[in-house]
Amino acid sequence: MTKVVAANWKMHHGPKAARQFFQRFRPEVDSRAVRILFFPPDLSLAASIGAVEGSAGSGAPVEFGVQNLHWEASGAFTGETSAEIARDAGATLALVGHSERRHVFGETDEETGRKVAAAVRAGLVPVVCVGERLEERRAGRLREVLARQLGAVAEALPAASGADAAGFIVAYEPVWAIGTGETATPGDAADAHAIVRDVLRDAVGDGAETVPVLYGGSVGPRNAAALMSAPGVDGVLVGGASLDPASFAEIVEAACQAAAH
Ligand code: PGA
Predict the structure, then answer these.
(1) Is there a catalytic annotation at residue 98?
(2) pLDDT grade for 163, boundaries at 50, 70 and 90
(3) Is 173 designated active site?
């Protein structure tokens, strides 16, 4: 299966830094083996797209998305961006339900569902983030948490026109591994991904088989190859290690090797 490698820049890299990144980002890859996705801050989206379009022979094609969106198409929602506006600005994907949205900004499962539906409505591919907190894992509640988070997404999907299971991506990101330097072992990741796939089958039926399931949480050049070789891991969502073009290129190259096996 084609591997998916996604960069979540969070609140880093303004337009100038984004342009500099793409001047230096030169992975050596077979673009049929890997999909490369970038989620820059909204204000850096145009500069990022422009930098990629303007740099001849920069290697693999890349796709862009936003890190968050509002579920309404437009309206009096100061400070928010809709899926339609993101699409108009050149995004083709949207991260939804990232753990920082859920746990720092208090986003609920229901809101995550509405955002997924909004993304699908506007023709964006939602990259839905799910994952358990440490206390939930310790209490043996991993499956329950994933089922609840993915269930809310599945419930929202039929309401969105043109919803289709193949049109979304899931990122499994254990909250305790994000930005902490603690990574799930490839075995832990494989176990959790098997649960995600199982829960997806219950939630969306046969279409579940084609949904790429990425792993995220302290992925870097040292552990990317092992994680992407774990059963059921279709790619990675990378935060900190995606900010440096050389380190992110190494992860993309690791994905190509994993895809070849
Ligand atoms: P990290 O972030 O790679 O810095 O742990 C991952 C994420 O939040 O998506």
Answers:
(1) yes
(2) very low
(3) yes
Task: Supply the CATH number for residue 47's domain.
Answer: 3.20.20.70
Altogether, the residues listed in the chain come to a count of 261
CA distance 112 to 127: 11
DSSP annotation of 70 reads B
Instruction: Give the integer Cα–Cα distance in Å for 244 and 169.
Output: 24
What range defines the domain where residue 40 resides? 3-259
Task: For a ligand 1 pocket test, name from 5, 238, 248 the mutation site with the most ligand atoms within 8 angstroms of its C-beta.
Answer: 238
CB atoms within 10 A of CB 156: 25
Kindly report, residue by residue over 117-142, the tens digit of the pLDDT. 999 999 999 999 999 999 999 999 99
The number of distinct structural domains making up the chain is 1
- What is the CB < 6 Å shell around ligand 1? 8, 173, 178-179, 216-219, 237-241
Which of 67, 173, 176, 236 has most ligand 1 atoms within 8 Å of CB, for mutation? Answer: 173
Q: Has residue 5 got a pLDDT over 90?
A: yes
- The verdict on pTM exceeding 0.90 is yes
Tens of pLDDT along 202-228?
Answer: 888 878 888 999 999 999 999 999 999
As given in the structure block, the two tokens for residue 196 are 């995600």
